[in-house]
Every structure is written in structure tokens, then in C-alpha cells.
Amino acid sequence: MKKNEDQNGMISTNNITTLIRSRIFLINLVILLTLSMSIAYVASVPREHERFLSLSTLGSNMMVGDYYPNNKKDIELLDDIRWYIQVYNNMGSAEYIAVRVKLLNSEQAAPDDNTHTPSPIEHIYEFKHLVAKGETVTIPFEWSITSILSIDGSKVIKGISINGDIVEVDVRADDGKDFRIVFELWRYNTESKEFEFSWVDSSNEKRSVWNQIWFNVKS
Amino acid sequence: MELYSLLLLSVVLHASVYASPDVTIDKALTAVKEADNAMADTSYLIDRLNSVLQRLNDPSCSNDYECMDNTRIELEMITNEAMTLKESTINKNLSMLMVNTLLYAPIAATIAAFVTTLLYMKLKSYLRRRMMEMEVKEIEEE
Question: Measured between CB atoms, does A193 come within 8 Å of chain B?
């Protein structure tokens, strides 16, 4: 080693050449070259991630809660209610989604999580949006009941205003209890050219997403 | 007969005006998705596509030939831009991969190998020197 260093312990040009020609340098270089090239390749290849779409329904303060006026499940005619629907896209590419709104009573079938089938009831309103990958879209949902009929102790909702649009409906519940608004998330399939209620996630499992909020009608 | 042919032609043309945007929506969507998969930034295309989709869902536009025609043209432009974006992103990513793998990685490896070898030799030299400078003590046996 004395040969590789001058008297002050500094490395001279001659010694650099010796160092570069040494076996230890070559072994180091090969190992580090393989390592750095592998890291550079792995870092540039897109990684497989969990693919999912999520749907959340938020209250008037854009939080989980404050869904009803006066914090009671009872809703009266022309009560203005403001909710927010949030859709998050983590499918790895842009997704054209539709949020379908359905008004149901407790006896009508809700979407099935096991078979991933939507509620058979026709939707009363629909929001369509193209969501970029990794983006969350917030859709305001302002609604009120515009028409209620009372028949034999039952209450029938005949009209609903959603974001300023009046929608005619006909849903009955005994004593006006246990109505629900169901939000179903549908995804557009460019191959079948249709919106579909379920899709396959990264682990090849079928997925579907929906929310519901219960309420009573008081008039 | 001529009247019938003209009527048939007008029906076909009418149908094609309404059918073509749907086909192009799928093309545009597929093109944007492919660009997304190639890791391109498609946010501006998605904003434009959203405004087109809004227009298509608006009955006042879907009943207007001119509006539908403009929409179709815009959808075609979005499709073409998405395809170009995809190609350019793939090329950019490939050249970045080549530069990283064939230029930066070898430079970093060479510097790291030089430094580690130098440190190793310094350490080895220091330890050897210390060993040489050690005093040899004779232990007397009882």
C-alpha cells in the first residue's frame, strides 16, 4: 500500500491508475453496476397496484354526518337537504362513471353485494363524469321532497327535486318510515359500450360499490 | 322510387350523425385510457372530454346538427391528441430508461466503486500501519 500513496497520504495520478486496475475495484464496479442498473430499471417500470373505485356520501358539512335537517331522520315536505357524493378512482386509468340515484322503501330490493347485481328499481337521477386516475370527484346532491300523498296511513313520495330538476316518483312506505336513497356506482366498459355495475379488481375479484341513506317522511 | 331512395338516404345520414359520436366517445375514451396506461398526463384531455360528454348529455345539443358535428370533430381531435400523447410518452419514458440505465447508472456505479475501493485501501493501509507500529512486548514466564 505504501507504493500507492505519496508521503502525505494523498493519491497521485499514478496511484489512481493502479487503483482502477486493481481486482477489488473491478469486483466493486461489477457489483455496483448491476445494482444501479437494476434499480434504474425497476424504478422506471410502473408498479402493479390495487385497483378500486370508491363511493362515499357526505353530509352538508362534507363530513360523515349531518345528513338530515335538525339531525333527525325525519324529513318534511320541501326540506332542503344537501349531500355530497365523492368518487375516487384508483383503477390506474381514467374511468367514465355514472352515479345512479334510486329511491326505495324498506321492502324493495337493494343492490346485492354477493352477486354484485344492482337494485332492480329504475334510477330516478344519474350523474355522469369522467374521472382521471387518482382523482376524487365531488358531486353536490341537493334534494327535497316536492310532493307527498297520504293514503291509508301510508305516505307516498310523488315528487323529488334533485339539483333543481323535478323528478316524478311513486314510492310508498307505511307511516312514512324507512325510505332510502341508494347511490350506485356504475362504470363504463368501452368493450361492451355499456355502463356496468360491477368490475374486476387487481386480484381478479368482482367488485361493486353502493351507498344508502335511510330517512322517514313527516308531513 | 327516387323519392323513396332520397328518404332512405336522409334516414341513413340522419342516423349516422347521431351514431357517430357514440362510436367516437368509445374511441376517445380508449385512447385516453391507453395514454393513462403509458403514464401520460391526461388531465387536460379529461377536462375537454368531460365538457364534450356534458354537451352530448344536453338535449339542446343532441338535437342540433351543428353542435353534434362540432362535438364529433372535437372527439376526433381528443382521440388523435391522446394517441400522439401516448406515443410521445412511451418514447420519452423509453429514452429516460435508456439514459438512466446506460448513462447515469454506470456513472454512479463507477464513482461509488472508486470511492469504496479507495476507502477500503485506506482502511487496509491504516490497519497495516498500526500493526507495524505496535510494540512487541516480551512476557516473562514464571
Answer: yes
- Which residues on chain A are in Cβ contact (under 8 Å) with B92? none
Q: Which fold has domain A52-218?
A: Immunoglobulin-like (2.60.40)
- Tens of pLDDT along A77-107? 888 999 999 999 998 899 999 999 999 999 9
* Nearest partner of A127 among A169, A88, A85, judged by Cα: A85
> Quick check: is B40 in a domain?
yes
Question: What ipTM score was computed for the predicted complex, to two decimals?
Answer: 0.75
What are the chain B neighbours of A5 within 8 Å (beta carbons)? 125
A161 touches A141 (CB < 8 A): no
Could you tell me if A190 lies within 8 Å of chain B, comparing CB atoms? yes
Whether B109 sits inside 8 A of A22 (CB atoms) is: no
Q: How many domains does the structure of chain B reveal?
A: 1
Show the domain range for B70.
14-97
Segments making up each domain of chain A, as ranges: 2-44, 52-218
Q: In whole angstroms, how far apart are CA B32 and each of A157, A197, B73?
A: 42, 22, 16
